[in-house]
């Protein structure tokens, strides 16, 4: 800003440091902060090509809106995707993210650890499963699978109900907590209480150093790409789903005859509510002579 007067340079410096100032300050307040007069601020605006301070404020609001939109996009959708990406690019990026989450999770599985968790679940008289919001869906999925093969499992997606159950646990029970980040306070609180009640505490997160993972007796890692880890990221959920399917299958293997019997019983119970499959296209009967 060497070509500007000292007063203009001071105003320009303030606006460069904080472009939102015109939205926060009146022309008099901005002039006072710059140590000059409102008339000088008006001349500064005209020197930049604006009709006056109101026009500068409109431009500042538009720029702020564009910046907020970009920040919101990256926060809610992620840096891996851009607003102007063609559909073909979105498909490729999305597939890569989901594939990376599954393959990284599978490659990092500690089979001895997962087998130990499965054995604890199979031998437990009571299994609590905790998760809030998106992770609550995963908790319910695991509970449904385990319950169908005879495990007394309960999913809790609300802190008060989960804490009540956690307080009633004891030695020999199992508590499993889901949180992508491992920093969800309600989930940490539920697993902490379950552990202090005597339960074997297991955390499933994407961050091995997170508070939830540090609290647990054992930790399973559900990996997700860092540039695409959002609160409701499906690639993170798919990694968690991979782990719960693995746990379910390992638990089912431990007592195969009983598992087979229970699965057959539940299948028979719901069979009447399913329509039979249709093979080929239905063909209308030929009309004969009347």
From TrEMBL:
InterPro entries: Homeodomain-like_sf, HTH_RpiR, RpiR-like, RpiR-like_SIS, SIS_dom, SIS_dom_sf, WH-like_DNA-bd_sf. It holds the Pfam family HTH_6. Residues 117-257 form the SIS domain. PROSITE patterns: HTH_RPIR, SIS. Residues 1-67 form the HTH rpiR-type domain. Keywords: DNA-binding, Transcription, Transcription regulation. It comes from Nocardioides terrae. GO terms for biological process: carbohydrate derivative metabolic process. This is Transcriptional regulator, RpiR family.
